[in-house]
Amino acid sequence: MACRGVRLYVITGSIKTMNLVKILDSSVGQKIVAGATGLALVGFLLVHMGGNLQIFAGADALNQYAVLLKSSAAILWTARLGLLSLILLHIAMTVRQSVRNRRQRNQRYAKTSFRRTTRASRSMMLTGIVVLAFVIFHLLHFTGGLILPGAYQQKDAEGRHHVYAMVVDGFSNPLIVLVYVVGMLGMSIHLKHAISSALQTLGLAKEGHESALRKASPLIAAVIIAGFLVVPISVATGLVTDETSGGEGSTAGVVPDERPISSEETNTAVAARIKRDIRR
């Protein structure tokens, strides 16, 4: 009886797996998964944007927020792996849709509609590549500390990772600001189409409200992009500096990391400081 139960469980699991594979292999299934993962990533962007805006509350607020995010390694890495899974699944589904669309180009039905869809799909693929390249750069910059490593290794007066100083030093470099502006422009174009498309695919847009949805999607995209761009632009224009974090409880002072720092890393940090001082 036990063996029979195990066999039944295995067979049931296999059927469910086969059904899932069929769903993911279908055009509708791919659109649903791409839409769902896309909206989940939009939700992450909103949360991430809120965290970034902590910079306007001063160094102490932003540095403490960073400490809070890293307070549990298990939660942090679970969130990171979950986010990575969403990104990979979203990319896989959109690429498969693009391949399917290319194969259907020579079909005779709905030529006008198909041309419109193909143009939108092409735009989504191109901007998606721009966004992916930007995300990789962003991770290397602020998460990995491989770009401007001297700025990444700073600590505040309380021994915390000086995220505030890292951000100010990073965005004092015009080339880095340019990369972020280009990345955000690509993301705005991507989101403009993606949000409305995802809501329609998942059936979250009520019938007759398509026009309002098309107008709301660019607005939502604009809010997200403005929320991300306001930080580098504020630093680049001098509205946010190390000095703007002053006041009671300020941790604007920088304490060097205790471990030895290479001359290359030191020169990078000094160069960033000099550039910022010149602009003042």
From TrEMBL:
UniProt keywords, alphabetically: Membrane, Oxidoreductase, Transmembrane, Transmembrane helix
Gene Ontology cellular-component annotations: membrane
Superkingdom classification of source: Bacteria
The keyword Cytoplasm is assigned to this record: no
Gene3D superfamilies in the cross-refs: Fumarate reductase/succinate dehydrogenase, transmembrane subunit
Residues annotated as transmembrane: 32-55, 75-95, 125-151, 171-191, 219-240
Keyword Metal-binding: no
Entry's EC annotation: 1.3.99.1
GO MF: oxidoreductase activity
Name of this protein: Succinate dehydrogenase cytochrome b558 subunit
Provenance organism: uncultured planctomycete 13FN
Lineage: Bacteria, Pseudomonadati, Planctomycetota, Planctomycetia, Planctomycetales
Gene responsible for this protein: sdhC
